[in-house]
């Protein structure tokens, strides 16, 4: 079957249509349509999500219904009222849409642009910011905490052992969960995206002999990161120190700013190995601190006392 003839006819038809449109619409017409379109888009963006949008919708529905009824049933009086009410709407617009008009003029005065510019914050950046701020507030109050950030490896098996929540993540929520008198403060919480999936979760402990000197909460943080790609943030109840575990290794003594930066790095590079033999996505950061060889008796006693405090901090019977 020969398709050449139909294709030629289709192309010739498209050419005729294009020539007809080009002859009727010049550059000025296209520019006029573009300016009106931008103006309408700007006006609609101003009233989007406000009560003015509902008001405009109601006016349009009322006018459309009135014109349709007046033309279908030839209602002379209704047509007269509609024709004379449209000019009155011109004087009513400044009164009805005074806040939106004021905001539009302010935007023009500040930015000199018809299209407002908005700053888009990444959800992962927001997550890192909330977790870092909450960890700092928990550390200042000496509230022990264990936060697990779920990534590609599902943690539903462990979440089912805790208390289901499905709550929007916020620093206030985390402070309430890990308040010492809260029934959920002993366990860990699992965070998926910007939601707290479960609280009071019991996690597997790291079994390596090299981590026996640390407390249960820190061992649970290392344990969950050994069997998944999750990130665990730990706040010590005894010392108020903030630690982060990833790929079975732990970094200690993090402040709010550094914790937020590390969480952002881990999110951007979830694969690949960091420098200096660091865990995936955690470049340049060391592993779990093990007991150092004693240089003298005083330094050995100081290191031993620090380890004893952390172990006492995390040795609650039902700790995650």
What are the salient characteristics of this protein?
320 residues, alpha+beta, YojJ-like (1, 2 domains, seven-stranded mixed β-sheet, 11% strand, elongated, disordered C terminus
Summarize the structure.
With 320 residues, the chain is of the alpha+beta class.
Provide structural commentary:
- With 320 residues, the chain is an alpha+beta fold.
- It has two domains: 10-111, no CATH class; 123-270 and 279-289 and 299-313, 3-Layer(aba) Sandwich (YojJ-like (1), CATH 3.40.1700.
- Helices cover 53% and strands 11% of the residues.
- The chain is built from eleven helices and seven strands.
- Strand 6 (242-246) and strand 7 form a beta hairpin.
- The protein is elongated.
What is the topological layout?
Layout: H1 4-24, H2 27-47, H3 51-72, H4 76-96, H5 98-111, H6 123-141, E1 145-149, H7 156-159, E2 163-168, H8 171-177, E3 188-192, E4 195-201, H9 216-226, E5 231-235, E6 242-246, E7 249-251, H10 256-268, H11 297-313
Parallel strand pairs: 1-3
Antiparallel strand pairs: 1-5, 2-4, 3-4, 5-6, 6-7
Helix pairs in contact: 3-4, 6-8, 6-10
